Amino acid sequence: MPFIPHTEQEITQMLQTIGADSIEDLFDEIPTHLRAAVLSAVPTGMTEMEVSRLMRQRAEKNTKALCFLGAGAYQHHIPAAVWEITTRGEFYSAYTPYQAEASQGTLQLTYEYQSMMTALTAMDVSNASMYDGASSLAEAILMAVRANRKSKSRKILIPTTVNPVYRQTAHTIVKGQQIDLVEVPYDKATGTVTLDQIKQQAEADITAIVLQQPNFFGCLEAVDEITDWAHENNILVIAAVNPLAITVLNPPGEWGLDEASKGADIACGDGQPLGAPMSAGGPYYGLLCCKQALVRQMPGRIVGRTVDLDGKEGFVLTLQAREQHIRRSKATSNICTNQGLVVTASTIHMAIMGAKGLENTAAACHQNNNNLVVQLCAIADVKKAFAGAHFHETVLQLEVPAQQVLKALMQKGILGGFDLSLDYPELGHAILVCTTEMRNEDDIAAYAKAMQEVLAQTANNVASLQESA
Amino acid sequence: MPFIPHTEQEITQMLQTIGADSIEDLFDEIPTHLRAAVLSAVPTGMTEMEVSRLMRQRAEKNTKALCFLGAGAYQHHIPAAVWEITTRGEFYSAYTPYQAEASQGTLQLTYEYQSMMTALTAMDVSNASMYDGASSLAEAILMAVRANRKSKSRKILIPTTVNPVYRQTAHTIVKGQQIDLVEVPYDKATGTVTLDQIKQQAEADITAIVLQQPNFFGCLEAVDEITDWAHENNILVIAAVNPLAITVLNPPGEWGLDEASKGADIACGDGQPLGAPMSAGGPYYGLLCCKQALVRQMPGRIVGRTVDLDGKEGFVLTLQAREQHIRRSKATSNICTNQGLVVTASTIHMAIMGAKGLENTAAACHQNNNNLVVQLCAIADVKKAFAGAHFHETVLQLEVPAQQVLKALMQKGILGGFDLSLDYPELGHAILVCTTEMRNEDDIAAYAKAMQEVLAQTANNVASLQESA
Amino acid sequence: MLIFEHSSHGRNGAPQSPVEKASVSAIPESLLRKNRAALPEVSELQAVRHYTRLSQKNFSIDTQFYPLGSCTMKYNPRACNTLAMLPGFLNAHPLTPDEQNQGFLACMFDLQSMLCEATGMAAFSLAPMAGAQGEFAGVAMIDAYHKSRGDEERREILVPDAAHGTNPATAVMCGFSVKEIPTLDNGDVDLDALKQAVGPQTAGLMLTNPSTLGVFERNIEEIAKVVHQAGGLLYYDGANLNAILGKIRPGDMGFDVIHSNLHKTFSTPHGGGGPGSGAVGVAERLIPFLPLPMVTQEGEQYRYLTAKDCPQSIGRLSAFMGNPGVLLRAYIYMRFLGREGMVRVAEFATLNANYMMAEARRRGFTLAIDSRRASHEFIITLKNEARKYHVSAMDFAKRLLDLGYHAPTTYFPLLVPECLLIEPTESEAKEALDGFMDALEQIKQEAETNPEILHAAPQTLPVKRLDEVRAAKQLDLAYRGSE
Amino acid sequence: MLIFEHSSHGRNGAPQSPVEKASVSAIPESLLRKNRAALPEVSELQAVRHYTRLSQKNFSIDTQFYPLGSCTMKYNPRACNTLAMLPGFLNAHPLTPDEQNQGFLACMFDLQSMLCEATGMAAFSLAPMAGAQGEFAGVAMIDAYHKSRGDEERREILVPDAAHGTNPATAVMCGFSVKEIPTLDNGDVDLDALKQAVGPQTAGLMLTNPSTLGVFERNIEEIAKVVHQAGGLLYYDGANLNAILGKIRPGDMGFDVIHSNLHKTFSTPHGGGGPGSGAVGVAERLIPFLPLPMVTQEGEQYRYLTAKDCPQSIGRLSAFMGNPGVLLRAYIYMRFLGREGMVRVAEFATLNANYMMAEARRRGFTLAIDSRRASHEFIITLKNEARKYHVSAMDFAKRLLDLGYHAPTTYFPLLVPECLLIEPTESEAKEALDGFMDALEQIKQEAETNPEILHAAPQTLPVKRLDEVRAAKQLDLAYRGSE
Ligand SMILES: Cc1ncc(COP(=O)(O)O)c(C=O)c1O
Ligand SMILES: Cc1ncc(COP(=O)(O)O)c(C=O)c1O
């Protein structure tokens, strides 16, 4: 019997001890008329050999196209050591470290994660993770509402340059608490939000503003200027960052030129670029950091360093009074299980890569994107939508529907980018193209060539249509 | 610097301690004119990302055809747990357990391996592994020569039903020691060796006889009869077995009908079917077992159970006086490094599968082969070469050159078997086809269909050739 | 020693990144980072060694019996990990066009279907990323349902006092107020109290059955009637289906919405705290509100359902598809089990729990609820031992660690004093259960004769008992260099 | 506890095989097995738990500094494992037609070429499965070479007394007799003795350079001349190239044949004892005799060389292609290093060894050879400590284990009394080297003040010192049931 070790003899012995005649007897408190029939829609069991064959066949069906798609999930190199250690049974099959003395592995690692994440973001405090970037933004908003006692409005400014699915998720999660997410449009020339536009949306009392850096278009927001302005107006700043990008970009803890009020108040984002494979969307993890003053508003687990009876260093879950298992209906959040294993991978990833390795990786992503954009924009009818610097994603505008171009590219083995027409119809036929350090010169040249062919073909089609018309 | 942790500062400190000006100085005992130039034929280093890409491309080039090829290496199901545990750093990156107290993991596991292997073969003693099945046969022969003090001839009978590459390997390894490998032909009807044929080759003084079960043709030798005869004539019996097959076949320790002299004296074979992937040929491991009386002639490492200072059970390398690091030129063999990690996998494999699991697997291999042979022999011009039972391989004879048929099958995604024409030209256009438990009904039907098409096509070609002639 | 303490300035041993930094001169100076982040600078070997050794400091299922009640620490088949990490899955971008993502989508569709069958619900969404998020989705759907009918006044969620902390926390997060319903001594919900509590303000009742007390709620049909008649909906906290899989289905008991923790019942790993999955299922009338994304089948093709297909959906809970890697592991596990294996899970989880309970009774322990069948778990209360020998449930727990067993859940559910909530799961052999009970009995004897051993425990682990008060008072949440 | 002791009769928990046994009735009854083998009957969880916990009882590179001299315990990059285990390689049948095996063959061809370049040899065969088999192949080729020239009288192999045990054992296995050549106090071969030893009976000399004493043989050119002039060939035991990679090439020193342990220099894992690879390379005149199989390139295609191509080959040493999985790991490692990385290996392995040697000197230890540069390793002799305090090198070794360090090689080479052969490798950080030297110094002090600590060591490991004599006398080599 798969995964069940009992022998017939043991079953008999155990039933004897219990004083029951059969296993069936153990269910005698369940009303008979409610008992389940055979679960016929569930197929019968399989051996590992059969399951393996099935899963290999299904995995093979998925595309192997060259990936130039980003939009919130990125294909980065992950050192082989990362997941080999992460999936060691002792990490993989342990649970939340409630028994601290028997969980020092997970606890110390989480403390190290918090240390690395605060170093990366230049924030004071990090928790042990949220579910993903989108839900961590939602929790950051809830946190800001709890924290900003000077504001009564529960109004949050959220530029439309913030990832659309992040905005949708935040909406789902915060809407029950009468929080108002006020959208701020972006500047058509730069693909970023300007202080003027913000001020137009900002009424007297605003609780917080969200800034994504780099933003969804890959463009760089004027975070210093906006942070200073926000703090002058008692508005909390929530930074949503790509944690790899901030190894080259100014980290949220340093935003603002005013030394006195420097830094975002809360930083969130998706940890995926730091060691999580794309994996069809997850598991990733949400990073969540804040200033020291906000620590008691933090949702989720936090690990602290302490000592044991002998004064020896050790690690425990701390500030648990914030959490649901202690505080129940008054907890800072309902989160219980988090994304521990991915955090484990990410911590090992950061340790192996080092700050320099991450920085070189980030710079390579950036340069590759510049190269790609130059090559693509050399093609007639392809142009950059926004002026100014990009990190590793760029919006390109085409003369033909994005959908059609992406499909044709796919036939040539190129996953060419994200179709923006649904979320940003005002951009016309626009796609968001991404490069990471994984895309080498050959890949970029292959994309450019494919694009050229696809557009030429489309032009021919159009021409021949016109001819035949 | 890949895999080198030194910082500039540390290098300086270390050189200071040494009293050298530069690292280069440390090589000043090497004659300058002998110093190597740049190794220009070695490419420059690569990052892990680049190496990964290269290796993935190369791995992709290898065939994914359905495998009906055996001939000494078999595609079996291996539980995922096996290699996940085997490649844990503590097993993977440890060395030979010279420091027993710091190596109880490897030592106990090896003791368990020896226990399992003797249980499987029904022999008294197992060592901790040889390199592979072929070289373990060679060592078995050397061992027999040392052990059989009654024989002076150094003559070994070796039927041609023993795997040809095993015979070649044995020849390479034993020939320096004036050992004579006398080939015994097989019976054309049964594909096995008969006592009559053996007797014809056997002169007065024979040191040992080798019997492979199942033999290279997948046929089953009359091991009982031959063992009894050998023992009556002071000839040692060396069994070469497939360790999976002997979960259903009579194990070497039980060969012979004469209770007084029962059992092969030495059993060898390749452990590959017990947890080692085919992996282009290895690493596998050679199993080597013997009767208790022969233990001091055993080559290679052996682990024994003992106690520590407190009387607590523990494990050590034992009988080391047989080995090269103690006995040097008088050692039983020069073997030092063995195939420990594969033995680790194999031990875990046997523990997870259990005897019943292995037995069911072996039976499935056998039945699948029967099914395949029935379906293939239903095709005109395909027939079984030998009467009698087979384990999971069968020789089939065709009307057209094997090479040609196999090539055509490969184009249909079928790795159709082993071409016997080089090693056994007397069999005509013959192939050895194998099935393991991995080949399901669909696979078998696919092979039969492909064979039908290929032969039909060949017939057409022949016909059209004849027409055009 | 922390990884930071292995750091040496300027070390960079690993071939894991481009050696040279590419130019970032296209980015305005003011937007660039000024100081490199103070991550540790270690070699790959140092990192591997550090984290390998750290891992060895954990208890885990793969190394110890781990009967942590309410957490279902069952064997996580290694194949589930290996197969879920096939390159075809790992390299799949979440926004890959559906046509190129059919292998993954097929798994997700099948998983939805199997969960429906196993729970008796009409439809499932796999979007929630853990039990708590499943609860959130469920309660948000209850909210949306009432509102869709113009029933705006239902602002209260009922929760039994034995409920998991996430239940009340979730209700509040969704904007509801919470009313607690007491539990009777026999473990059943106080039906009279429930009857008094329901009314036009009732949005729904969140119930765990079998409850966190480890017994099956026998009045479930009555409860369902009471809540439904009051116009409320019935929420099933199915974090743990281990006791009922294939035996009784929440849908058949009258529940309107349920979440299931795939990281419990369906054996995806707990990973030292996550990730999990809190897939959420609903009865017919709640289908329109299910969270996105979901997967549907059209002919031979699978595709994601979007907001266009489901305009009434409560929306999305994450950027992409919940936790696909977790969902794949659950899917693989379910294919291993098949329908017959699912029933066995319930049977043997229940057998193991009842056997351990009988053994506990035989060895003189006090059971929280003595007269009834255990479900997949049961509770020992050490209130007598605490009174007589001044040893706490925590002392027992710590001493168990010394004896090589992970401790059961302590101090939950909150209503049982000095409790140990013990859940063996079906994958543990009798040998492990007996070993654990022997240890527990030994500790009981130690408590009577030499309670100091308990107070001083653990002694054999990497650290002795840790000072949690100090941790919370002198907050040290991140390494800030060696002062 | 043994895995057998977790066994319970009739247990069969894993979905790892067909549930039903297929018919074997086609096989004559007399050939069938009568009694099922007494393998353990455990659940998959029990097996996973047992072997996971067993693994934790090992010291290993991934968990400890492991300066085992002559063994080169350097970091084994995890990527080498991951990439060598790609399905495309693992599922390759060894007899796959060459055209369908191009990815693997390309790696093997490149590996042969890189080894030639790194060693200065004309051709390489990857067939030998460990160093000892490489030696066998090498000596067999020497034999074949002489015989091919009708030079049948050369039946003696010369071996320095410092040589590894495999050298004399191999020579005998190939049918030669062995003559030992003494070593001078300064570590160089006794040239006079060598000159006297060579003659028309000399088939060859097997030499390790740097020698197992950890020093470079300075008279290597002279030695080569002496042996060659006598008509013998020069064999290089290149088990360990760590000290010379990219610095000096055996081919340039005049060696005719060499084996290289890829599991040392090229970082394939030691796996608790193997598998390894002893690839063998030769100068021009020995090419025809190389063992099979080898890989050649023709145009864009790679193919195996067979006996038809190489009629003078000594033959094959294994059923297939040596240990391909090991070869792949070495290949991957070499691509990581590249030519510049290879030189660094030698530089930093040498730096680390010389630093530790200097530290040992500074801390008052006696060096076996004090006046010279260390190569990649060096030797401490504890003969003074043994005499004064009655502590042995073995006591030092066991005490080191207590302090968290794997012991160096002890009692090898045999000619240095009470020796520790220390090889740090290039991948260890100064931090580890210093920690080890601190431990060694501490033990020296303990030896002086309280030698009992050493005699009683180890105290912190799973077992205390084990009774090896009993193990050899009361042979217990396999579990035979619980009596
Ligand atoms: C009964 C019950 N409900 C809800 C939860 C919450 O699930 P999760 O931790 O996945 O958020 C748990 C798990 O801890 C639980 O046991
Ligand atoms: C110098 C030397 N020669 C030969 C060998 C034998 O190599 P292997 O153990 O791979 O057979 C070794 C390894 O132990 C060695 O160190």
Would you give an account of this structure?
The complex is a heterotetramer, with 2 copies of chain A (469 residues) and 2 copies of chain C (483 residues). Chain A has 469 residues and is of the alpha/beta class. Chain A has 2 domains: 80-348, Type I PLP-dependent aspartate aminotransferase-like (Major domain) (Aspartate Aminotransferase, domain 2, 3-Layer(aba) Sandwich), CATH 3.40.640; 355-459, Aspartate Aminotransferase, domain 1 (Alpha-Beta Complex). In chain A, 38% of the residues lie in helices and 13% in strands. Chain A is built from 13 helices and 15 strands. Chain A has helices spanning 8-18, 48-61, 80-86, 89-92, 104-121, 133-147, 164-174, 195-201, 223-232, 324-327, 340-377, 402-411, 441-468; strands at residues 66-67, 125-126, 155-159, 180-184, 208-213, 236-241, 266-270, 286-290, 303-307, 313-317, 383-384, 393-397, 414-415, 418-419, 430-434. In chain A, the strands form 4 sheets. In chain A, strands 2-8-7-6-5-3-4 form a 7-stranded mixed sheet, with helices on both faces. Chain A has a 4-stranded antiparallel sheet with strand order 11-12-15-14, covered by helices on one side. In chain A, α11 crosses α13. Chain C has 483 residues and is of the alpha/beta class. Chain C has a domain at 79-337: Aspartate Aminotransferase, domain 2 (3-Layer(aba) Sandwich), CATH 3.40.640. Chain C has 15 helices and 13 strands. Chain C has helices spanning 44-55, 78-84, 87-90, 102-119, 131-148, 166-173, 191-197, 220-229, 250-253, 324-362, 383-389, 393-402, 430-449, 452-456, 468-473; strands spanning 123-125, 156-160, 177-181, 202-207, 233-238, 257-261, 278-282, 294-298, 301-305, 366-367, 378-381, 409-410, 419-422. In chain C, β4 (202-207), α8 (220-229) and β5 form a beta-alpha-beta unit. In chain C, α4 packs parallel to α10 (324-362) and α5 (131-148) packs across α6. The longest helix of chain C has 39 residues, at 324-362. Chain C is globular, with a radius of gyration of 25 Å. The relative contact order of chain C is 0.13. Chains B and D meet through α1, α2, α3, α4 and α5 of B and α1, α2, α3, α4 and α5 of D. One pyridoxal-5'-phosphate is lined by residues 70, 130-132, 164, 166, 208, 212, 237, 239-240, 261, 276, 278 of chain D.
